[in-house]
Recover the amino acids of this structure.
């Protein structure tokens, strides 16, 4: 890989903290190498404090752009020149593109989610979704699904720090899209069951199912699910969460972890920077061949 870096190499960043564990540098650098693109992708420890300087550096150093992750996804917005409409609705940015000094913010988690379903030839447009979670992932999924034509979204959340965001998501969707969104507390178990029963897809975008909650699932009763529905967990470590095990026990045919979404959010950013399609199958094979679902 070193041989392909020279004086013309174009730099892409990843600005977050903590970030050294991220798979994104491996994903993007291998994709650049596979396509013979003269780009390099590097992770930088950037907290809110360093963020203004780091964003300035994108312009100063002529970087093509950057990924942005926690704790900077919201804080970065006032530092940019333009926002993609979906990023504006979500209120968060995970990808920056630098066009000759003009920085535009995008969010690719939601498009990554939708694309990962398209990859499986599954179409939820015109259908109903029940979604648990209104954090970063839940918000991006809800907004993009609504923008893409999902007919109804029933959002469930704890009455915790994310409840206000959940209310905001429902208001944004109802005001700015044709989708009908409703919000319920996760305490309303009967409603939770009946909404899932009426949905084409159930998506869990909470952290339940991954460390330190890897032994837990919001749903423990397989009878919540129909065999012909989609059950999607945004968690990808472990590859098979408790929720996925319960869905499989119920005989659900289409059960997914968050790996496809993670790869596709990266692929969407890759396309924005390079104009090229990321070789997603190659990257999947390279990074996750030993751990497929
Ligand atoms: P976040 O902290 O922004 O939001 C967490 C959400 O989980 C909130 O809605 C919160 O209310 C809910 N929650 C937390 N603990 C809960 C509990 N015990 N019971 C019920 N709900 C609970 O986190 P995030 O960035 O949105 O990440 C959420 C999940 O999505 C994580 O598992 C993360 O790994 C995953 N994720 C996956 C991708 C991907 O590409 N596959 C991308 C982003 C996030």
């Amino acid at each position: 890989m070193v041989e392909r870096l020279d004086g013309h190499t174009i730099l892409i960043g990843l600005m977050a903290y903590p970030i050294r564990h991220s798979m994104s540098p491996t994903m993007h650098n291998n994709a650049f190498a596979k396509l013979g693109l003269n780009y390099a992708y590097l992770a930088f420890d950037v907290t809110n404090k360093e963020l203004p300087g780091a964003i300035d550096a994108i312009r100063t150093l002529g970087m093509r752009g950057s990924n942005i992750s926690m704790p900077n996804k919201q804080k970065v917005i006032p530092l940019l020149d333009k926002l993609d409409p979906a990023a504006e609705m979500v209120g968060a940015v995970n990808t920056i593109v630098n066009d000759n000094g003009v920085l535009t913010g995008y969010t690719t988690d939601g498009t990554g989610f939708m694309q990962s379903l398209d990859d499986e030839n599954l179409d939820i447009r015109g259908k109903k979704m029940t979604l648990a979670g209104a954090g970063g992932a839940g918000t991006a999924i809800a907004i993009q699904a609504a923008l893409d034509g999902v007919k109804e979204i029933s959002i469930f959340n704890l009455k915790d720090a994310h409840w206000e965001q959940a209310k905001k998501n429902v208001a944004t969707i109802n005001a700015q899209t044709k989708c009908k969104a409703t919000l319920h507390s996760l305490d309303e178990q009967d409603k939770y069951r009946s909404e899932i029963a009426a949905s084409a897809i159930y998506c869990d975008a909470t952290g339940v199912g991954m460390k330190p909650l890897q032994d837990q699932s919001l749903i423990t009763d397989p009878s919540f699910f129909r065999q012909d529905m989609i059950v999607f967990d945004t968690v990808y470590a472990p590859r098979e969460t408790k929720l996925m095990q319960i869905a499989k026990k119920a005989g659900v045919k289409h059960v997914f972890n968050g790996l496809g979404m993670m790869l596709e959010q990266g692929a969407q950013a890759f396309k924005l920077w390079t104009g090229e399609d990321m070789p997603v199958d190659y990257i999947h094979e390279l990074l996750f061949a030993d751990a497929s679902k």
Notes: The pocket of nicotinamide-adenine-dinucleotide is lined by residues 109, 112, 133-138, 157-158, 160, 162, 186, 205-208, 210, 218, 234-236, 258, 261-262, 265 (CB under 6 Å). The first strand starts at residue 10 and ends at 16. The domain at 2-107+262-291 is CATH 3.40.50.10860 (Rossmann fold).
